[in-house]
């Protein structure tokens, strides 16, 4: 093994975790651009198009592995590769057509990783094989909840690697552990995996650090905030409005557009936005409401959105997934982007993306997402009282009616978004790991890279 670090990202490429996957691959691509060797190990599903050219990708396991309460090698190694010959949209349509199937897979995954001290030993062996093949030094685990795999691999190997714990969506796993009656065991395993890493766990916002500390009884000093990052939008002229009309033919150019972009699942609170829009409609406030994005657990909530809109006699422009070109045009032409989540969001990539395009946002006053929108007295958007559609309507009306307020927020948006660039995230992660990418040696290796001895010393210091 050389002194140059190799980063292996272990990430779940589907379902409710797509935002976390996007974050992981943004970071992976940023490190790859700097000359580091990067590989990606996919779990459950894969999104190979997210990785930059030159990044090696391997399938650690397929979703059908967790079809049953115990992992199935036959489904994973024999049946699943055949199923994955079908295009992604066909696989998603079938899996989402089975009520509760995605939840069942993830609950079974949680059981397999936490229920017993034996953490899916066959998968651990496969992970170790990949680590050896790719000469991995830093195993970047997408969630603390899947870190039992990394801890088991570390305990069963003498390979000179260690793992980084990241908290960025683990409340979902905690819910599955609670349903399975494993919450106490799950909390204990999280303590073990955090203690087993030489570095403090990465947490994606200050609020989320407090939440994890309270909910999982973890010491705050064993965690460190590293904000997520995005590839910032370049300043340019607005895309032609015709790009939007290709997806939304009835959309009018000169009537304010209010948009929701993101997953259409129950925890995202899109129904609150519908109620707020109906209140504004009753007051005679002109707006066009756009709702778009994929779903993770089937079309039930998306169908409910359509039904609620019909009952409210509210015209909405409502579709599923949209292309990046349409998404960017929607960011640019919207009066504001609303993200009305009813859960305590750890972060808010959509809010950062919107501000990066110069568009103000409205988000709940709850969770890490508020840290994205506000910085002291400066803000790139407004907050509303969580779960309060009446207050959401009031804040929306302010942005629609008050031109000076909208102009002031718009002037701050790109500055607010710039705090969360992919390069800043990469800088923060490297600093967190003690790697100085600026100190490149003549032989092409990097300064201050902890080898096995340094990793072990750091681990002993934090025990």
UniProtKB/TrEMBL annotation:
Gene Ontology biological process terms in this record: lipopolysaccharide biosynthetic process
Q: Name one GO molecular function term.
A: glycosyltransferase activity
Entry keyword set: Transferase
- The transmembrane residues are none
A Pfam family this chain is assigned to: Glycos_transf_1
Matches recorded under InterPro entries: Glyco_trans_1 (IPR001296)
Q: Would the keyword RNA-binding be found if you checked this record's keyword annotation? A: no
Q: Which residues form the Glycosyl transferase family domain?
A: 249-414
Can you say what this protein is called? Group 1 glycosyl transferase
Look up and give the organism this protein is from: Methylocaldum marinum
């Amino acid at each position: 093994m050389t002194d140059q670090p190799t980063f292996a990202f272990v990430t779940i490429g589907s379902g409710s975790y797509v935002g976390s996957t996007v974050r992981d691959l943004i970071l992976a691509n940023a490190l790859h651009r700097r000359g580091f060797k990067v590989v990606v190990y996919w779990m459950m599903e894969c999104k190979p198009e997210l990785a930059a050219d030159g990044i090696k990708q391997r399938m650690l396991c397929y979703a059908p592995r967790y079809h049953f309460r115990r992992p199935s090698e036959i489904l994973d190694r024999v049946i699943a590769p055949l199923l994955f010959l079908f295009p992604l949209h066909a696989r998603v349509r079938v899996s989402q057509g089975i009520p509760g199937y995605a939840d069942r897979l993830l609950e079974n995954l949680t059981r397999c990783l936490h229920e017993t001290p034996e953490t899916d030993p066959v998968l651990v062996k496969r992970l170790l094989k990949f680590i050896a093949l790719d000469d991995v030094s830093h195993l970047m685990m997408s969630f603390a909840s899947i870190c039992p795999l990394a801890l088991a691999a570390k305990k069963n190997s003498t390979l000179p690697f260690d793992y980084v714990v990241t908290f960025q969506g683990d409340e979902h796993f905690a819910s599955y552990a609670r349903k399975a009656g494993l919450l106490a065991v799950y909390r204990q395993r999280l303590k073990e995996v955090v203690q087993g890493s030489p570095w403090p766990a990465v947490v994606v916002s200050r609020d989320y650090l407090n939440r994890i500390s309270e909910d999982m009884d973890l010491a705050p000093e064993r965690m460190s905030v590293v904000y997520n990052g995005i590839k910032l939008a370049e300043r340019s002229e607005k895309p032609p409005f015709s790009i939007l009309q290709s997806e939304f033919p009835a959309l009018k150019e000169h009537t304010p557009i209010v948009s929701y972009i993101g997953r259409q699942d129950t925890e995202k609170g899109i129904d609150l936005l519908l109620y707020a829009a109906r209140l504004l409609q009753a007051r005679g406030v002109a707006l066009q409401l756009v709702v778009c994005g994929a779903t993770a657990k089937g079309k039930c909530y998306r169908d409910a959105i359509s039904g609620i809109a019909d009952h409210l006699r509210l015209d909405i422009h409502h579709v599923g997934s949209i292309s990046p070109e349409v998404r960017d045009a929607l960011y640019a032409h919207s009066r504001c982007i609303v993200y009305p989540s009813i859960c305590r969001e750890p972060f808010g990539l959509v809010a950062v993306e919107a501000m990066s395009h110069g568009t103000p946002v409205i988000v709940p006053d709850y969770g890490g997402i508020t840290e994205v929108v506000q910085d002291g007295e400066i803000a790139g958007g407004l907050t509303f009282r969580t779960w309060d559609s009446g207050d959401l309507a009031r804040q929306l009306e302010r942005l629609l009616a008050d031109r000076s307020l909208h102009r002031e927020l718009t002037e701050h948006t790109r500055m607010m978004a710039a705090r969360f660039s992919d390069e800043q995230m990469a800088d923060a992660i490297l600093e967190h790991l003690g790697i100085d990418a600026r100190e490149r040696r003549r032989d092409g290796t990097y300064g201050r890279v902890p080898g096995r001895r340094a990793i072990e010393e750091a681990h002993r210091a934090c025990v």
